């Protein structure tokens, strides 16, 4: 009888062991795209494919509206309830890493060596996040307008100089055919100001912060190059070349298409719908204001929370999601720039010779990340206000000095944002 009991116990123990050995580990993922049906369909397809491809892990998704997403992550981090996998806007990543929300990806950086620089979330020498796409800004123009105004078509190798750019804007105004020479998107008072306009400041030779030390904005945001940018920036508005900060969002949305603006400073995400309405649209590189042509880089990226108990599983999902076929799927559905050249070749728009291939070239050649520092989340807000105030007529030097003081005070308040 004892033998029978022992045998039964052994069978039960063995069965329990087998169940544990083959158990599926649940992984949670948060995403910022609630309400975006197209984007959501692709994300859910990737998750479904991953879950079916193996039996070790099962990913479940919770989506949030983009406007409330960052706040939800911060609240969850404070409560110790972060998911395993989360996505984040590239420039926000350093703050989340510094704050202890994230852990470095347990994936060698070489795994992503073919990815565009802007898609790699590197902070303090470590890779924390990786993006499936990037975004780029270009100067939208009509070929017919360029011809009528007698303008040279700029190229990546030979972009417009500041003088050529200003000549183009003044020629457009003098023609009398447009409400304004260019639409800069001033109605979009969000991260757009830093993403779209900070590169102008950088091309002038200024910047938001000393990028060698990240310890001060002094002499960078308020130096002579920055003041030169500020004076030029203000002139665009005083000379009525662009709509001001009170621009109607609807005018920004359709103004170039409707012929109200000769040019538009706009992103690749609006290119497809513009091509459908403007048959001779072309996408031109950023002007060179003296220190090279520059545009913004880094979009939404995937990372692993610091509290995840299964980082190896989360890493397996991220590697799975960053296959070329999924990079191409996002690009085809949303018009985004594929993270790799090989994925671009799988798309109609971004393949060599495709109508949007120019944006891949712009992203590879001109894109520069916003300052890779935890303090950027504050610095961006400071720059947004300074750019708007200068556009509205505020004194350039005083405004940039004040912005510099605010940034330096934040850095000091946070003990230099030293790594924990």
UniProtKB/TrEMBL annotation:
Return any one Pfam family short name.
SBP_bac_8
Single GO cellular component annotation?
ATP-binding cassette (ABC) transporter complex, substrate-binding subunit-containing
Give the signal sequence positions: 1-23
Q: What are the protein's UniProt keywords?
A: Signal, Transport
Q: Which GO terms describe its biological process?
A: maltodextrin transmembrane transport; maltose transport
Query: What molecular function does GO assign, one term?
Result: maltose binding
Give the family per the record: Belongs to the bacterial solute-binding protein 1 family.
Protein name per the record: Sugar-binding protein
